[in-house]
Hints:
Number of strands: 0
CATH class of the domain at 141-266: Mainly Alpha
Shape: elongated
Order of helices and strands: HHHHHHHHHHHHHH
Helix content: 55-70%
Radius of gyration: 21 Å
Strand content: under 5%
Distance between the termini: 68 Å
CATH topology of the domain at 141-266: Leucine-rich Repeat Variant
Structural class: mainly alpha
Amino acid sequence: MASKTTVDLEKLAQDLSDADARVVEGALRRLGARLGRLGNAEYRRAVELVCSLFYVDPADRPDLERALERGTKLLAAQGAKVIPHLIRQMEGSDIKSHLYLARTLGLIGPEALPRLRNLMATAEDPYSRAFAIYALGKMTCPDVVRALPEVLGGLMHPDKEVRDSAARTLGKIATVAPPRRLTPRRRREMFEALTRALGDFQPAVRAKAMRSLGKLDAAGLMNREQKKMFESAARKALGESDEYAWDNAYIVRREAREALDRLHLR
Length: 266
């Protein structure tokens, strides 16, 4: 049986690298039917084979988009068992594969939280830390609020990609977390951290912070005083204040305008 498994995996490896998208999808279907029954060594190799697809650029191979989606769901269906292998794959991956790995971990949900929180706290590579935070932003489970301390800490990280991911993910958490899971203290911490990020020297971070503040408002997580402060900050970014020049980055001004259009002062 062991030799048959090895032969099957070799054939799957060939098919997953085939130029015909239909062959690739067929290989994923066959692998999905038996992945959970493989022994440890074969299981790890099979996961690596699927993850190798994540290096594909869909812009160059649009015919493989369905296969990439199938591979993501196939791995996510493995739940806790596959998490260590996905985390390992994140080390040294490029941005394309990171996006799919993060999406897969996000689909897994609460079971991935402890490993992602640990990665955010301990990863020496800022790139891996940024994508651990990005993966949290892909989660739609209420338990994602447990990672708020690490995400808030990411806004103070020296690496701009970590801060960018943290600013984005705070808005995602505001969108999916039940308000009762966010104490007044946590709401204040989120608001204050994002407000400070409006002064970041990186335009992308400022833009994400502006957008996420808008999401805090839409989720009903701001009090009236905070709403007024946010409105003032958005107007300053747009140059609608006599005290400050506008933000010279268009992406920040665009987010400020959209946020003001949606802001509801109560």
